[in-house]
Amino acid sequence: MRQFLAVVAFTLLTIGFFAGYSNFGIPQIEPAPPPKEEKLDLSSMTMDQFIALGERLFNGKGTCTLCHNALGRAPMLGTIADAVPKRLKDPRYTGEAGDIEEYLIESLVEPSVFVVAGFGKKGTNDTESPMPDVSGGSIGLSEAEVAAVVAYLQDSGGAEVTVEIPQDIDEEGDDEEEGEAREAVNDPKKLMAMFTCDACHMINGVGGDVGPNLSKIGANRDRAYLRRAILDPNAEIATGFEADMMPADMGEQIYVKELEVLVDYLAGLK
Length: 270
Known about the structure:
By secondary structure, the protein is mainly α. 40% of the residues lie in helices and 1% in strands.
């Protein structure tokens, strides 16, 4: 009887240990809300400060330098004062801009209205740009932020800064202490579009070539590698590609459930 009670006690202690560890020792995977937006005090901002904000967005949140750099993956932007008037007269231009400011705004939110020769998606004959709409997806620049980037591009590109600092834009969420949680996405293709993966990665002939081709990634890489590549893209750089080309904050933007949906999808690409 004593031995039986000892076995029961040991079993209960073991179960209690694993139950406690699973609840308190393993990090919880509740999805966190999106990162809190920086509040913009536009009312007291000078034009120099507004241009400086645009530069920070260009190099940071906007992820522009991932492609607009010396590696030649996208056009350099230092000569827009001379280049834009020529593009507006180009027969291939399909937009409605009438000046440099309007063209830059248009190119940020509708990048396919004009694609510089040689920089379009493969197979589109330079009619479709691999660049995402910076006001949507994982970038999500606000109207004021787009204006700041345009001011910076005008200033750095040798054009007159014609952008006016917005004063009447209602920045949603300024009174909220935390970002409002969004609904998780269960469709892997919608996730790929939301995080603009095809701007850099090609799948079955569609997408960019800034990053590795993912068409058969599941045949060569296991789930652990795929998960790590999304959350820590610099952990292992694919041959022929550079570090710091993929946003390093995907872990802050994607929910755990969405991450697994995306990993499942990529693992099935064989």
